[in-house]
Amino acid sequence: MHELGVVFHVIKIVEEVVAENELTQVSSVTLELGEVSTVIESYLQDAWKWAVLKRSEHMKEARLIVEKIPAITYCTNCKQKYGTVEHGKICPHCGSEDTYLVQGNEFSIKEIEGC
Questions:
Q1: Using one digit for the tens of pLDDT, what is the confidence trace for 4-59?
Q2: Angle between helical axes of 41-55 and 3-20 (0-180°, round to 10)
Q3: Structure pTM?
Q4: Which has the closest alpha carbon to 33: 59, 10, 16?
Q5: How far apart are CA 113 and CA 52, in angstroms?
């Protein structure tokens, strides 16, 4: 389960922001999670609940908010975009396999709320 490692990394970054901004408490962290990223949200939430209690004085009560980013693929043949999860690599408009993912693989910290 690499989600625990991901959570440790997020906690490290948030702790750096806490120090830089002289915060005393973090109430929430919002992550953007791509639909086809390799991170499983339920595992991420479970790892978060355990890790913030064990690894951070400033984040013991912090909620993890996850915003999903839909996976979108672009076809270079017909210049159309389509939902990756629904159709995969083959373009549903023209049948081409000359496609690439334009969004949906992201994992980033969007917002840290604290005082």
A1: 999 999 999 999 999 999 999 999 999 999 999 999 999 999 999 999 998 888 99
A2: 50
A3: 0.87
A4: 10
A5: 15
